[in-house]
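Reviewers of the previous submission asked for a worked example of the structure-prediction workflow described in the proposal, so we include one complete record here. The input consisted solely of the amino acid sequence. No template or homolog information was supplied to the procedure at any stage.
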Amino acid sequence: MRKNNIRRLAQIIAKKGGTGILVHSIPGSPLWMIAERIADDSWALTLFHPMKTAFYQLGLVDDINHLALWKELTALEILRKGRHILVVKKLKARVTQFNQALLAKNNSP
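From that input alone, the workflow returned the following structure tokens.
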């Protein structure tokens, strides 16, 4: 049986500890990006689906670019979640309108 990526990641963390490894989900997809510190100013980036076996080595970045990429992913995730909240608020307001109209219709003579 082939190991899926989540098992590979668990083995790396068990072997090396959690220090120097960051995991970030990619907003709007099932993919994860793993950043592993390999030197003082160098991070190896890997992209994968946790339940599959294929992975993509994205390359190396320095601390500044790693932080910029992380900020961008975090901003995308906040934006995506913010959109969900707006949709929920709009739907809730619409349902309230429906209920008020139905109540007014039922209370009219």
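Helices lie at 5-16, 63-107. We consider this example representative of the routine output the project will generate in years two and three.
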